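Step 1: inspect the first sequence and its tokens.
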Amino acid sequence: MRRLPAVLLILASAGVEAAELRLNVEGRVQERPASRSVSRIVPDEKPAAPDRTANEALRDVPGVFFQERAPFGLGIGPGAAGTLSIRGSASNQRSLLLLDGRPNAAGLFGHPLNDSCGAEWVESLEVVRGPDSVRYGSGALAGSVNLIPKRLSAPGRKAVVSAAGGSYGQRDFVAEGGWRGDAWDGYVTAANRHTDGHRPKSTADSYHANLLLGRSLPGGWDLFAMARHADDRVWDPGTLAEVSARAAQGKPVDKWSRAMRTGADLTARKDFGAWSTTLKAFMDYGKNVIQNRSSTTYLWDSLDRTVGGVASVGYSKDGVSCEVGGDVKSTGGDGRDAATNRRFPGTRRSEGGAFALAKAEVLRSLTASAGVRVHGHDSYDAEFVPQAGLEFKLPFRMSLRGAVAKGFRSPTIGELFHAAGAASDLSPERAWNYEAGVAQAWGSQASWDVVAYIMEGKNLIRSEGTGAAARYRNSGRFTHRGLEGSVRLAVLPNTEIAGTATVMDPHNETKGNPYAHGSLSVTRRWRRFLLSARAQGIHKLYGADYRATRLPDCVLAGLRAEVEPGAGLRLFAEGRNLLDKEYQFAEGYPMPGPNATAGMEMRF
């Protein structure tokens, strides 16, 4: 109750922009609940060429940041690369990555592996900034990213092949194709990405394949299955201090990690009038190996398995929409820590919940939304998760929004049992998010959006103590405050200007959470030629929590050119860090200097 005045103040001073829209795999428009800060990105529709990875597709979303240590890496192991941060959630997997609603994470420690997800099979990405636990449960404490797969919506065929190469031995090969007939449809992609690395012993290889197969059944049912396999191996060159220490011993740094993941899901969906129903079953299997032969501090080998399902029923008519459903998930696995010669036998934990979401036009210019989840876990008591929001539509296509939402994250199996310092009595991390925003849009010509938020959490799971005495504990509270803004202008012929800005006070969670960052891009098209310039700025980024080890501020500049000579052919070239700035996103890992990529794409 002590937060009620703050909530009422936010809701009274601001409401919500028009409800965000997304396309499902059939191309049918669906509405998100009012009052949420939602961004939808379609990689193939960007003014410049499609992004290669999910990380690249998200780089211009306000409130989102990635802690990188190489052009592409792997988000597993100590000091992992590619860590997704939404509103200051850089550590402990507090943001959820989903593949068409299926959670995608390494089962034992919850690493989302977002940086290893190629964008070649992705139709769109839906990013929710702020807790999304009512809809998706544990892990969406700070937000969620849902990747919607490509699927042809009309009869026909499609095929695309692309190849690129560049600095540091970079090689990219992608092939994709799809078809749709009267009853059957399918989409398949395959990709290989390689780099020799910009530092010694920083090679990375990535192999991905994705298959979607659909069938229209009698009675109006749409049945489709998706399967995905990824094999990523990355060598870690070590921090500059580690390289120096090993060189003094006459030895090189020798560290690498490999993640092999296979996942599949089966979905049945039917629309009948104002009603719809969706049933989904999924599984995910992974093998992770982390080797550090430079020392005996971390040698890990594990298998993890996740199975689960989701069921929901929806209704939408005359300005009223609602969805009721439930989900269940069981995760387990085996681990071996060779450094301590400890084996962790098969351990499994199950969780799931029931949820309800509703939205209604209360007045002509006022829309209200609410949601609730009751979530159970076999390691702690039931969790009650609410959210609510209002949307006010104003003249001149302006809108105001205000929302309050709760999010939570269950302790992972690693934190409960498998890690050094594991503690079986951990409680879930919890957070409340309060936000208010204003937005305006003039058709396809221009738009802008600004949102302010406060996120307060407790029961953070931290490793306390040193050496053998270190243990995971629920400790401390956090308060993150911030402003997020974006603008897009297309007022000049064939020219688009887009910018984003994020200002945040992450309290003590300063690792991977800059106080300010933003981007600005200008894209100009002349018939078959396109030129795009982009700049990214980062201010006050730290290499550790509690404002320790401040990293250099930087402004990074890039330029991309494309030409389409005809017959479905596109040629492109791109230069990055053209100002030759020395910068780091992770302490001790310098990023590349000026580098370039060039390639071609053929559409059939």
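Step 2: inspect the second sequence and its tokens, then contrast the two.
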Amino acid sequence: MTFRELELIAFLSGSLVHGSQALLIGRYLQATPAPRRTEGWQGLVSVGQLFAWQFSNFVCVLLATLGLGYPSLPSKIGNLVRWSSLYATPIMLSYVVTHLRLYGHSSHPELVKAVRALRWLLWPWLLVAVLSLIAEGTKRFSPIVPFAYTGWITLTLMLTFFLIMTTQGLQLRRDMGPSSLGRARRAGLIASGVSAILIILTLVGVAMGAFPQLGPYVALASMMTTVPFSIYLAYRYCQFPFMDVYIRETVSGLVLVFWFVVSVAISPQLPAGLRLLWLFATALSLAFAKGPLARATERRLLGYQETAEEQEERVGSALRSVTNAESFASRAEEILRGELEAEWVAIGAVPRSDALHRFELKGSAPAWLSLGPRVGKRAHMSRQLRLARSAALQLAVQQEWLHNQDKERRRLVEQHQLRELTARAEMRALQAQINPHFLFNALNVLANLIQDDPDGAERVTEQLAEVFRYSLESTRREQVSLEEEVRFLQAYLEIERARFGERLRHHWSVDSAAAGVSIVPMLLQPLVENAVRHGIAPALQGGDVWVSARLDGKQLVLQVEDNGIGLSANSSKPGFGLGLSNVRERLFRCYGASAGFVMEARKPGGTRATLCLPLEVHRTAMPASPQEVSL
């Protein structure tokens, strides 16, 4: 691979990086309120100037490759843009030095004054350098400063600012630990330090003619330092929320490009018969390496030691474990403060006025989740905002469940005598093991659908509301109609279908005569959950669930079947799980010995659960107040 081809690849990659940054910042500005757009505009101007520099470099090299190099008119225009962008870089760096907040601490006041004074000289220098460039290209008048000196002086000015930023980073070297804040500090020091070293090498090569063989490569490397430096500036200086995702995709993409360039450069050295095989193996490895590279970038550069889904699941489990209504808010704040690396997190009836982000917790007692800045006055990245949105959903459901649990306990204490309270408390102890389990199953599905499929997220939310409403009613009613139970199970299976997709299919066969029969609420839910969780979920190809109901003499026969992996694959003692034990216990308490429950293998594969309920057993259902049931 020739040096010119390497230049084309390098400048095109830099142009794509800066161009994509500019597009994302533009979209960010459109969605940002006017009072908070200042940093966005500063970032857009800086990245736009760097894009002009890299893209004009690419155009000039491409024109030279096509035989349209200097002194052709297109090449002169490209050189004008290229060198003008370079001459403007010291001015851009001066604004970075004066506006950059060092992780909560502003730059030294005397330094800011000195740089602002120097900036009064940089603007005239930009005009002098551009006029000298025009004079060199047109030959219509004498340049004010010889063209060879303008680049040398500009690089010296850039070196001055990079040394200032490196010095600022060295002041924080003691705090560059393994935390994400320490990684951000270390990244800034490396970005400015490497840029300073490469510019020094370039100046030495230009002034003294040192290392003539490596000189072009050193110059190219110094020209490409705009890529890591601009990414660092956008991540630390402007703090755009999308920068963690952008860094992950850009860094992994640049590594793949480097991998491709090296492979193509090696291929001419191989025997002709192996070249095609080598290129095919390279393409195959690039396709499979994208995911692991992106994950490694998250771990090494951003400090995300687990995937977003794993973190959401862990945080959700921690929030669901808080079952004390009185300490719920304080405990949830403590959990989220550590996970989001926030200076403070507040849950209250009204949002805090100084919150950077607010999330509404809807329910019977509406509340707000308010987030303060991250440690070090950093902005929350998209990873933290995604986790906060997911946590807000889980907090709303958990808070609603605790609220209704507390209200239910108070209602029972007030309305029932001690004997009835003791008996009903035993029944609700069995239901309490069922209700929380499936109320939170849909939360991870919602978190994943919110950005990718908002319509699907809305449908799942409606189905979750139906499940939640029914579960609340079931704690206050001794019996419901089979038709109500079936509607609840359909909503439950639709939520499961949103998670499993086409791997889960459900079928219904309910006789019209059986639809009006009263049964104990949520009696079939553990059987359906068992079929999905232990039958269909482990099967790679998924499967079907059949729910049927019919009258047989003086009995109501209910069946739940699946064609999953079957009893022998599930457990050495099939049918003795907690959910099925609860079903047996509730059958005994509500129907006595006249009810039957059988778990058996289904041919050619799967499991069949059959319930036989006597029709003569009937208890009057306890109607619930509409105000208590509504969400």
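Step 3: confirm your contrast with the notes below.
The first strand starts at residue 345 and ends at 348. Confidence is low (pLDDT under 50) at residues 572-576, 618-631.
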